[in-house]
Write a structure and sequence with these properties.
This protein is α/β, with parallel strands linked by helices. It folds into two domains: 148 residues, Flavodoxin domain (Rossmann fold, 3-Layer(aba) Sandwich), CATH 3.40.50.360; 65 residues, no CATH class. Helices cover 29% and strands 28% of the residues. Strand 8 and strand 9 form a beta hairpin. It is globular. It comes from Weissella coleopterorum.
């Protein structure tokens, strides 16, 4: 079975990672044939005929990734390509990359993609990645493919809720420690939490929520699960 790897590469980092990923997959003698497809303004593909994964780096104009607005730059062709697809169900997962020095902005484009289209963000790597990233992300891709082949849904059962209340607004981050999943951060004014089902932990500042989220994604390699899943 052919698996398409959709990507855009501005500085060559993502393209290099894709090349190493395919080489690693070939050495693993996988039953899948991974096909790299670089998306640009000139891409003629209008639909997907096989399962696919999206690899997207982070390039943003302004904002801090927390409350101030951000605007995607340079990778817009990939966004527009996905947005124009009539059927996005074949996209099984997103892999983000970026620079950890940008803190809350790290893999923010990938997180925004996940929320925009309800696609899980299954892993990430910094800059060009290292061999251990390639090995781990290959395992994440294979796990997601196995779920797809068995028609399994991702079950998100939060065990911990991190809440920040400021200026009468409540923001919430949910984590499923058992299944290694983390949610987006969303306003929780309409959500009633049952303390008997999970542990509620309150934090003082919104950036603490983002630090917890990024740590779960980068150090523990939890999957980022959009609210719609």
């Amino acid at each position: 079975m052919v698996i398409q790897l959709l990507y855009t590469s501005i500085a060559g980092n993502t393209k290099n990672f894709i090349k190493n990923f395919i080489k690693f997959a070939q050495n693993e003698q996988s039953n899948y044939q991974f096909q790299a497809i670089e998306i640009s303004d000139n891409t003629q593909i209008t639909n997907l005929d096989s399962p696919a994964f999206v690899f997207v780096p982070t390039y943003l104009d302004g904002g801090n990734g927390i409350h101030s607005g951000v605007q995607e730059i340079l990778t817009n062709s990939l966004f527009e390509f996905i947005d124009d697809l009539p059927d996005k169900s074949k996209i099984l997962g997103i892999i983000g990359s970026g620079n950890k020095n940008f803190n809350a902005q790290y893999i923010l484009t990938a997180r925004r993609y996940a929320i925009q289209w309800g696609i899980p963000l299954i892993d990430n790597f910094e800059l060009r990645g290292v061999p251990t990233d390639t090995q781990r992300i290959f395992k994440s891709v294979m796990l997601r493919l196995n779920q797809f082949n068995r028609n399994e849904t991702i079950k998100f059962n939060p065990t911990n809720a991190f809440q920040c209340i400021t200026n009468s607004e409540s923001e919430l981050l949910l984590i499923d420690e058992k299944n290694h999943l983390v949610s987006p951060i969303f306003f929780s004014s309409n959500i009633n939490l049952d303390p008997s089902l999970l542990t509620l932990i309150k934090v003082e500042k919104p950036d603490e929520l983002y630090s917890i989220q990024v740590k779960a994604l980068t150090m523990q390699h939890y999957w980022f699960i959009p609210k719609s899943i």
